[in-house]
Amino acid sequence: MRADVLVVGGGLGGVAAALAAARSGRSVILTEEFDWLGGQLTSQAVPPDEHSWIEQFGATASYRALRNGIRDYYRRHYPLTERSRAWADLNPGAGWVSRICHEPRVAVAVLEGMLAPYRGAGRLTVLQPYRPVAAATEGDRVLGVTVAHRDRDDRIDIAAPYVLDATETGELLPLSGTEYVTGFEGQAQTGEPSAPAEAQPLNMQAVSVCFAIDHVGGDHTIDRPAGYDFWRDYKPDFWGDRLLSWRSPHPRTLEIVERSFTPNPDDDPLSVHADQRLNPGDGNLWTFRRIAARRNFTDGAYGSDITLVNWPMIDYFEGPVIDVPNASWHLTKARELSYSVLYWLQTEAPRPDGGTGFPGLRLRGDVTGSRDGLAQAPYIRESRRIRAEYTVVEQDLSLAVRGSHGAMRYPDAVGVGMYRIDLHPSTGGDNYIDVGSCPFEIPLGALIPQRMENLLPAGKNIGTTHITNGSYRLHPVEWNVGEVAGLLADFCLARGESPRAVRSDPRLLADFQDRISAAGVEPRWPEIAGY
């Protein structure tokens, strides 16, 4: 097969890249390993983590269309109460982590709708479920990629002038010989205050296998997981208690805190004000990442809230799942941990009334679209990252370093984002690293490999460090990166120029920044001043 642009990986960055290139008139092939497009938003089942101003600014127009589309889908198809239907900033789950917590299947429907016109026109071909297994290169260029069907013996060779790596773990980088880094960089390399003295390539953030649950009548206890005894007794040195407990380190202070868990509180959804500047929202784990609040719907429509379990105790940090021979074993153990957490919740978790266990908790694999009840895919926080023309370091956005000056302003800015530098416990035994940050920009240099000419990152594999990945890995930033990668491929095809030339030539750079602005990308945060 052949196209103008090949996008490998159908997560948020991949969908945004394919959409941008197809809207620009390019023929596009998009491949995805799992049953749903959308990555962390859908197959990984993680409600969006977003900044405090997301409803007003700080996202691309197409990402805003995705968010609006999700709300519109609920209004068109769900039995909302009139009060919730009239809620301008409808939060279907009334979760505290985001102002738009929702069921992942809704996002799938909206993403498919956004892509549908280009599939119908024959401009976009989506191959599912296919994963990359080989890449053909010549010098500093990728000629094509071979993808294999997940479930049968079927391979397809795909050629394209531009190849975008939107996989969750940067899978095209080793396949194509593109230079990349993993894990912690050392202070000697980056000068980052939070970095270790020496590089630790296999020290990576925890992965998590999420799952959805509700709480209804009856006993829905699952079979006792094979590794349950290990996980029930497991006590990390820095955790302050067993991993399977309500106690864990506070990410920002590392103080050991105890969280609560009250299924189906009779709270008013419209009273939830999800703003992590004011409240991280994880006091009651049930409402923290709730994706369906029953009081948003007419009486009897939902017998229970539905909540998404992406909580501290499901973080798996026993070993990395990138560039190690036993990666699949670790992923299996991560799934075992998630089942063990559910079994503990159903049988042994302390209840407010002094009892133990919540047997009414029911695993909702129908919500996550999986046969085994868990999310289709593991939540991968940290990818392989290209060795880029510019690498974003902690000093560029740390609030402690930058203070009132704000984050670094890049001459080649191609987007914006905001999130604390939020690192979960890692495979090297590190506790949380959680550092205040400033609203930041995305430099084009972070999307350009040092050597390869036609391979572009379109997700979490851009030129960040282990530390700054903690801010740049969130939903709207991944979408922004993918969208810019798709627009850059189109721009380079139209002009006959390379991505490297676009960045280095002030005239081309200005033209490209005008191009992305016209497409609805905000290259910089707004400055509010009189005129």
TrEMBL record:
Pfam families: FAD_oxidored (PF12831). One of its GO terms (molecular function) is L-aspartate oxidase activity. One of its GO terms (biological process) is NAD+ biosynthetic process. PANTHER family: L-ASPARTATE OXIDASE, SLL0471 PROTEIN. This is FAD-dependent oxidoreductase. It comes from Micromonospora deserti. The lineage of its organism: Bacteria, Bacillati, Actinomycetota, Actinomycetes, Micromonosporales.
